[in-house]
Amino acid sequence: MSHRNPSVTRIARVFSVLSGIGGAVHGIGEALQGNVAPSGIIINSWAEGPIALYMGGEPAMTIVPNFLVTGLLTILVSSGLIIWATWFSDRRHAGKVMLVLSTLMLLFGGGFGPPIVGLLAGFAGTRMSSPLSWWNKRLSTGVKEFLNGAWVIIWLVCLANGLFLFIGANVFPYLGVDKAHWFTNSFFISVPLLLLTTVSGIAVDLNRRSNL
Question: What domain range includes position 141?
C-alpha cells in the first residue's frame, strides 16, 4: 500500500518516534529503581540522577506494581512504537497500531507527555491513506490555501518544539540546566501545535491531490 498523504505520514512517523524516545527514557529510569513496588499508581520514573533532580523525576503512571517490570515493559512498548513508525507505517491499520502502543505506553509507565503526543501522532497515522473526504468538505478553500501556504513554517516550528521536548528534556538535565518549567510549557504548546500541524498537513495533501 502506497502512502497517498505524505505530509500526514511524516507527522505520524516523526512524532511517534519522538514519543517512543521519550517513553523509553521513562522506562530506563523505572528499571534502574529495581525489583521494588511503587507506593501507588502515580510514580516518579527517576529516583536519582540529573533527571530526578532537575525534572521532578518525570512523573508517570503504571498499572504494574513493580518498577523493574514496569520499566522493561515501557522500554519494550516504546521501542515497538519507534520500530513500527519507522519501518511498518505503510501497513494496513498502521495508525491504529500507533494508538494502541501509545495507550500501552501510558499504562505501563511511559510518562504523560510521550503517550499523549503518541496518541496525537497515531490520530495523524489513521489519516495516512485516507481519501480525506471529510476534511475536504469541511475545510473552506480559503482555510486550505492558508494552511497549505503556511505548512513549512508550521511544520518546522512543531518539529523544533518536539525535538526540544523529547530530546532536550533528557539532555539538558545532564548539562545542569534546572528549567523543568521550560519543558512543561513546551508540552502544553505541543498539543494544539501538533493538532494544527496535522490539519495543515491534511490541507497540503488535499492540495497535492487536486494538482495530480
Answer: 6-210
CA-CA-CA-CA torsion sign (109, 112, 114, 116): positive
Which ranges constitute the DSSP H helices of the chain? 6-32, 50-54, 67-87, 94-107, 113-125, 133-138, 141-163, 169-171, 180-210
State the chain's mean pLDDT as an integer.
Answer: 94
Contacts of 133 (CB under 8 A, 6+ apart): none
In a domain? residue 42: yes
**Per-residue confidence (pLDDT) for residue 1, from 0 to 100:** 44
Contact 172, 164 (CB under 8 A): no
- Residue 3 has a pLDDT of 61
Q: What residues of the chain score a pLDDT lower than 50?
A: 1
Using the structure block, give the residue that is written with the C-alpha cell 500507533: 98
The total domain count for the chain is 1
Q: What is the pLDDT of residue 130?
A: 92
Cα(145)–Cα(149) distance, integer angstroms: 6
30 domain-assigned = yes
